[in-house]
Amino acid sequence: MYKQNFKIILSFLLIFLNTIVFSQKKFTIVLDAGHGGSDHGANRTYSDIGRIAEKDITLAIVLKIGRMLEKNKDFKVIYTRKFDEFPSLSDRTNLANRSKADLFVSVHCNSSVRPTAQGTETYVQGPDQNDTNLEVAKRENDVIYLDEKDKQTFGSYDPSSPESLIALKLQQSKYLESSLLLGGLVEDYFVNKDKRLSRGVFQKNLHVLRMNAMPSVLIETGFINHPEESHYLASEKGQDEISESIFNAIIDYKKAVDRKSGGAIATKKPEPEKPVEVPLKNDFRILLMSSPVKHNDNDPALKGLNYILPIKENGQYKYYYGVTNMASVRDINLKTAKDAGFRNAFAVGFMPNQKLSSGYYTIEVATGKDKLSSNSFILQTLKDVERTKENGIFYYTYGKVYTLEDAVRLQKDMESKGIKDTTIQKVYK
Ligand SMILES: [Zn+2]
Considering the entire predicted model, what is its pTM? Predict the structure, then answer.
């Protein structure tokens, strides 16, 4: 009898303690005001408002976001800087990793050589960064916190076990998914609430995103060299609107994350189990467009997207964006492409390491109206370059391989020798 009572009291006590622990688990967010101290970032002098600098605008916005978040007891806010000082990029990411933060938000202003460039953009980690992120995650192994379902699947963390590596990779793809969610929310608020022009959510290889072991975004809040946008960025009204939009996006993001994990407060009702996403058999790339014209990286026609693989086929250059074998990432990549302005983009499946049954891949190393001279860098570096002429244009190709993966490897290999802006070409025979 006594024992029975004791058990009941004990289990009540446990529930009570549990509730305290759960309600005390705050959502830790690191707010990073870009630049600072001797690093002014983008800056410009105007006759009416004088000199404005990115470091001051980012700090003002971050402090405003922080003040709003600090009123909500669910959040713990950490600042990489609260003053005009310059923590290094590593200081910033180390602070975030050490704090086991749930989210990292870096605020910046943009600038461009074109004075007409304007609008906001949000960056998340690029697909090629996963390997670096994985290394960071392995090194910061105490940062690994899997959700309940993953723990059941993968057990406890042991850096040397292959299961843990799978778990880490899964975690990386979840970070990317979460970062894209927040990026989309931020840009939506800029457009719908503040009537700003959004240039979209992009994947980019940036230190502050690459070295973080948590979902992370970098927000470019506008162009300091644009005549009107600069004044908006420097104004109290502009800074209020921008910080409110980012604050609202963070609140919506946390709600979405809580819904997914079954609520911040422990509930008795078990959530319906969502199975762990299984990689697809095929790789997927997003076909942005086909064009008879060759565009190199950073060409405006590619609308700021990175990680583009052009493949030439029947005289047309097909531009593919990203590569993934996760359905969720494929869908997000497609959305990113459409948001960037490629309205007719669609996903194309590639069977990994598939040998062509007829024809082959080669690398187009140069094209032009003039013949390459025999002592040109390309002809000096590569043996057996083939030349063809069509409609007055010379085409130079090199190599013959039978899978796309081998073609990408061959292209990378040539790049390391200094032969850049080449195109993989599919030749039908
Ligand atoms: Zn910046």
Answer: 0.56
